[in-house]
């Protein structure tokens, strides 16, 4: 199968840079599967999972917002944060989820912010199950 280059970059670091066969994620207009030679595209990403398929294996990466760019040279994800499933600290995500739930149930502070923190934590916990 032909391959394309995938880069995942955050303001802190380069998380991923490899040749891969397919990328699947949820873009602005719904779920999208990207194969080599896909039409050029830019889309915002919310809190979501990036699935990367290569040579019969699949990796999952937790993304917490950013942009997806598809160009002839490959796919670039500019993410606010991105963690490979094996890099996710489950205890930390569980603690973040429980703090956010507490703030939501007690109407403590900015509700939208607490809901977003909960979405990030739940997304990380989902991705961490993929090992
Ligand atoms: P926390 O309250 O635990 O910091 P958060 O959702 O507020 O969670 P972010 O602001 O999204 O954290 O991320 C800050 C940095 O910490 C980023 O580099 C992110 O990749 C990393 N990070 C956050 N949560 C985890 C986790 N559970 N496991 C590994 N890295 C994490």
From TrEMBL:
InterPro entries: ATP_F1_dsu/esu_C_sf, ATP_synth_F1_dsu/esu, ATP_synth_F1_dsu/esu_N, ATP_synth_F1_esu_C, ATPsynth_dsu/esu_N. It comes from the Bacteria. SUPFAM superfamilies: Epsilon subunit of F1F0-ATP synthase C-terminal domain, Epsilon subunit of F1F0-ATP synthase N-terminal domain. Gene3D superfamilies: ATP synthase delta/epsilon subunit, C-terminal domain (1.20.5.440), F0F1 ATP synthase delta/epsilon subunit, N-terminal (2.60.15.10). It is found in: Cell membrane. Residues 4-82 form the ATP synthase F1 complex delta/epsilon subunit N-terminal domain. Residues 87-129 form the ATP synthase epsilon subunit C-terminal domain. One of its GO terms (molecular function) is proton-transporting ATP synthase activity, rotational mechanism. It is a peripheral membrane protein. Keywords: ATP synthesis, Cell membrane, CF(1), Hydrogen ion transport, Ion transport, Membrane, Transport. F-type ATPases have 2 components, CF(1) - the catalytic core - and CF(0) - the membrane proton channel. CF(1) has five subunits: alpha(3), beta(3), gamma(1), delta(1), epsilon(1). CF(0) has three main subunits: a, b and c. Produces ATP from ADP in the presence of a proton gradient across the membrane. This is ATP synthase epsilon chain.
